[in-house]
Design brief:
- This protein has five helices and 14 strands.
- By secondary structure, it is of the alpha/beta class.
- The chain has a single domain, classed as Dihydrofolate Reductase, subunit A, CATH 3.40.430.10.
- Strands 1, 2, 3, 5, 6, 7, 8, 9, 11, 12, 13 and 14 form a twelve-stranded mixed beta sheet that branches. Strands 4-10 form a two-stranded antiparallel ribbon.
- The protein starts with 5 loop residues before the first strand and ends with a strand.
- Bound molecules: NADP nicotinamide-adenine-dinucleotide phosphate.
- NADP nicotinamide-adenine-dinucleotide phosphate binds next to strand 3, strand 4, helix 3 and helix 5.
Length: about 220
């Protein structure tokens, strides 16, 4: 029977069942005990003129350079042995090309309410975003996880934008129109401010296959 909201590849209920404390209380408790708890939550996406991100379960464009930037960003860690928790909605994971896996330095987590077993290419399955946060911020994974990268789609982007630990949005501006059926959620650009000269992120407009695009980072101002 499906009892836990977290399923590890080949294992059920790997974590103790915390009695749903608010995240803040949990952070305070774990910090007192010396645990490294709070993890930055970062979104990464590419969106076209009307903020479209997908069509028929796929990316609407083919921009290998942009995809390489995405890959480099989510796989970067500060020290050997550290890993990023990369969070996929079920459709995004299943539509990602096979050739992308395994992702270096990444633990793949898929979100789904329907699935009852960890699908191929994922290490963990969670039924809700709260379980993702607990998994990353409590032992044992809190010792390994550096950043929670949210890879979409719309629902998980929305939830992560609203989370207090969310500090950055990497949002490539695809400077063209594409027919899309999935969209990046609206966010407050007075709260998340566009950065200039953000480390590791080229400011110049790029062009590939006749399509112009620009990497952008939005940072949450305190
Ligand atoms: N341009 C970009 O940067 C970018 C990035 C990501 C995705 N995309 C595109 O966007 C499209 C996919 O996005 P999408 O929004 O349609 O689907 P999605 O988020 O990838 O998958 C939706 C499914 O994920 C599960 N899910 C999502 N949030 C959940 C939550 N908080 N709790 C539990 N389960 C959750 C549910 O699965 P169940 O139905 O199994 O319960 C839901 O039906 C594709 O076209 C993809 O190519 C583009």
């Amino acid at each position: 029977m499906f009892k836990s909201s977290i399923i590890k590849l080949g294992l059920r209920t790997p974590l103790p069942n915390f009695q749903s404390p608010t995240d803040d209380k949990l952070v305070v408790k774990m910090n007192i005990e010396g645990e490294e708890m709070r993890k930055p939550i970062r979104l990464i996406a590419a969106a076209c003129r009307d903020m479209g991100i997908g069509k028929n379960g796929q990316l609407p464009w083919s921009l290998p350079k942009e995809f390489l930037f995405f890959m480099d960003t989510i796989t970067a860690v500060s020290a050997p042995g550290k890993k990023n928790l990369v969070v996929w909605g079920r459709i995004s994971l299943s539509s990602c090309p096979e050739t992308v896996f395994p992702l270096a330095n990444c633990i793949n987590l898929v979100l789904s309410r329907k699935l009852t077993a960890v699908p191929p290419r994922a290490h963990y399955l969670c039924k809700d975003f709260g379980s993702v946060i607990r998994l990353a911020s409590e032992p044992p994974l809190c010792h390994t996880v550096e950043t929670i990268w949210v890879l979409g789609g719309t629902e998980v982007y929305k939830e992560s934008l609203a989370h207090p630990w969310c500090d950055l949005i990497y949002l490539t501006d695809i400077m063209a129109e594409f027919d899309c059926d999935v969209f990046f959620p609206k966010f407050d650009r007075n709260v998340f401010r566009k950065q200039k000269g953000f480390p590791g992120v080229p400011d110049e407009i790029q062009e590939e296959n006749g399509i112009k695009f620009q990497f952008q980072v939005f940072k949450k101002e305190a």
